[in-house]
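Lay summary

Proteins are chains of building blocks that fold into shapes. Our project writes down both the chain and a compact code for its shape. Here are two examples, one after the other.
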Amino acid sequence: MQQIQYIKLNQLHESSMNPRKTFDQHGIDELAESIKQVGILQPIIARPNTQVKKKTIPIYEVICGSRRLSAAVAAGLTEVPAIVRDLTDEEAFDLMITENLQRKDVKPLEEAFAFKSLIDKGTYDIDSLGLRFGKSPSYIRHRLKLNDLIPEFRELLEAEIIGLSHALEISKLDTKYQEELFEEYFNERHNYWQCPSLRDLKRSIERAFTLKLSDAPFSVDDLTLDKKAGACTTCPKNTASNLLLFPDSPETGLCLDRSCFKHKSDIHFDRELKRIQDEEPDVILGIHAGVWGEEEKDVKALKSAGVPVVDITWSNGFQRLHEPELPEKPVREDYEDEEEYNDALYDYNSEVEEYKENLTEFNNTIASGKCRKVFMTTGNEKGKILLYEIRKEKQDLTDATGSEIAVKEQINELQEKDKRNAEIAFEKTYLDAKALLKENIYSNIADDLSIAEWQAVYVILLEFIGYVPLREEISPDKGYIENKLKIEIASKLDSRQVNQLFRAFLQNKLDTSTALFLQSEAKSLISIASEKYPEKVKEIELKHQGVYLKRKEGIEKKIAELKQ
């Protein structure tokens, strides 16, 4: 039976081996208050420290109970109950770890560190750890992977800004890619930024940081792409070749050597480009719109070499046809709690129904004969043959060869270039003419307006004709007047139309809902109305003046009464 004895606080010190380095001060303060009320209910476990001697007083190293020791100091105790055991370093460390792992509030990162410490000591492996603590090997592996998190993501997990499931996904990335992910999506944003769903995070990571061999443009079984590297299926840098380190690897695996992946992709591209030109002239050689940088140089090189590449854009009649992907069923172990897993399962079932509908639509489009094969020469899918649907208004593309389409596109490009050159010449002429007028604006200020100046006035006034009959009369299509047509219309106006134009302008500018604020405009409108319709305006004025004078008489009467 173990003896409990009381040891003075100055005889106890914390162990340097304690894996728990940080404590919640608020929690310690709460424990201190409890100790003041009911004392320490669970004794501290300590061992004699023979290496530290303080005169004749024995010194003890705290193995379990560092938090209780801190709270006892805060509560003002001078001694605490303790059980003293003779323990080796290995036994002491094992006991510390075990005690930490058995706490109800143990945090994932603490578990991760504890499991790693026990494995590093050589005491356990993954299977024996699982047996010791009643956890599955998969659970142990996932916790161990958290040790690979960079400090920035450790802090976000500790602060519960990201969840455990998110942290597990991030921990699978190399340090370099974690740093990139943090800089792009999390840095300086976590104080107000909401964490994405687990599914969205997985997709972002997959797009930006992993090289799925199932998405490779080349065959992963091909031994000839790089004889030294060999086939991807047997490469040690394929995660599928080492499931002990990468238990969550997809079946085909992820490539961990980006340079090798690119090297094989480039060799495959050159081979396929030549083969298609020689053997499959009906396959279109496609480029994405808006290429720049190195890709722009590559496209220019292809065109210079006579390769008939085509812009695969919506405006050219191409619409990408994606084969629907069967959604991935969620795995319970990937989720922190049952509710989160059930939500993911609900989303999965909905996605399966959507997948079935999309698959039917995809197969119907293939059967319609409106699809063309396109070998991509740029973008993330460079080197792949994709399917594109030809839109109805571009049906002529369905029978043309890739070279014929490229010739048509080159003609269109040259015509567009000519059009743009004319636009540039016009813009520069305008700017120089504007500068000339601005420089000499006051030189002929007393002269009458010229024909061109009056025409410019009419062009400006055309903006204000609204829906008056004149609009239908002068507009080519009796509707909206295009800006480029205004100068032509202005040059053909007769005197009657000019008068109508000015009156429409005046009506527009004198029409105000704040007559008291814009009194001059309001009086000008009344003057025009009086000039055109004197009797009717007089009648209007007498009506409103009569109401005003009657009200004025009543107000003056009340004022007189108040003064008496």
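And here is the second example, written the same way.
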Amino acid sequence: MGFLKNIATVSMLTFLSRILGFLRDVLIAALLGAGSVADAFFVALKLPNFFRSLTAEGAFNAAFIPLFGRAVSEDGKSSAREFASSVLSVMILILFGFISLTQIFMPFLMYAFAPGFSEDPSRFNLAIDLTRITFPYLLFVSLVALLGGVLNSFNKFAAAASTPIIFNVCLIGGLLILSPLVETPGHGLAWGVAIAGVVQFLWLIIACRRIDMVFFLRWPRVTPQIKRLFKLVIPGAIGAGVIQINSLLGIFIASFLPAGAVSFLFYADRLTQLPLGVIGVAIGTVILPALTRQISHGDHVSALETMNRSIELGLVFSVPAGLGLLFLSSPIVELLFQRGAFDVATSKATALALSAYAPGLPAYFMIKVLAPGFFARGDTVTPVKIAGLCVMGNLILSIIFVQFFDHVGIALATSISAWVSVALLLGALTRREFLKIDGRLGWSLLGIFLSSAGMLVGLFLGRWVITNTFSDTFFEKCVALGVLIITCIFVYGLIAVLTGVVSLSKIKDFKRENGDYLDP
């Protein structure tokens, strides 16, 4: 299966999961709104997901996939299976101990991550209760990351990419089925998170069996390979999770703001995550195994080609998506969320946060593409240094901006720090000659700029027509926004084709030039 087809597979499944995620968020918004229960649940959801992004999806995959891929190519499938089984055993022991400690010291953990909640004892205690329910999810989702890394190394992306679908189905079930049976809807959602981890793990166990990768638990042994893995994971944890660290800093600061601030940021971030998850995460997932194979074969020309085309592909999608979310933030939030407990004031506050997150969307894409350029070479130190600088910058900017813009300042600081991270990553890759911007990418950047300009003209003209034509009924709002988005996509796509940014010949050339390394 080729590089672009792998991206398409992951993107389609991620898109489906995001649609289900929006259905989940619409239900949460209607039933919980942006009050104390919503704030408490979003913190309970964020904390295990924060550690997951560091120990699992980010740093773990960045370190494990290259090591596992080399074990397969150099020592064979049986040796690679032994390595993965050893990692599985060590992970279970470490994570079980860590989760046990967090259950005991959860009040102190809450003081560390959401100290502002302590001013409201009911919200503070509810957040502790819900996080104790959700935190075991960390164990299972980390094991899911291991199994997903194994599958991705064999170019089997579908099973792992479908796990977010399972997650969203479980949360919707928790909200609709369990909520009437427990104390609050937040408790129903929290139990949905815990159940989702178990189901995702079982799903990938079955998928691994299909490729003859059956793992056995044994007493954990710290082998040289395990030492190498964790030597890479520890510094890479911060480097790979820079966006999540910034997001958690946002919760830390927002916890001192009036009730609802955490929820405003959560809903806005969810909208930003749709294009990022559909394309950005897909590219980041597929590029790492491809780069690892190319570099291990000593084909640095193909590695440079992969980096350039991945940047190009990411920007083609992320720039118009960011502009669309920026200039359509109000109608999008109003249409998706404004009902039930999610009132007009909540809608406006969320739209303002979205408009601050949106300019950073292309940067979030670029980080997903640029970081594998280091990870594929076993370098997790450089990204962690860059991440550390950006996290400190984000914290300082958030503290300053929140004085003037409330919760919107937190979102704005996150966007700025993401762009700083991109600039530093680009500089480091270029200096080491891991990345050389080719002429095709330079021309594509110009074409993306012209296409985006044309899209903005269509957007402003379309909004003027809609404002003077359509009424305020929900149906007409849906039609108007849908027509406007489709028109803007058409205009952008047309100019992109005319300028040569998008063409069938480019896709064929890329597959022909890189085909030897895009399939194992």
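What can we say about the second shape? Residues 442-520 form one domain.
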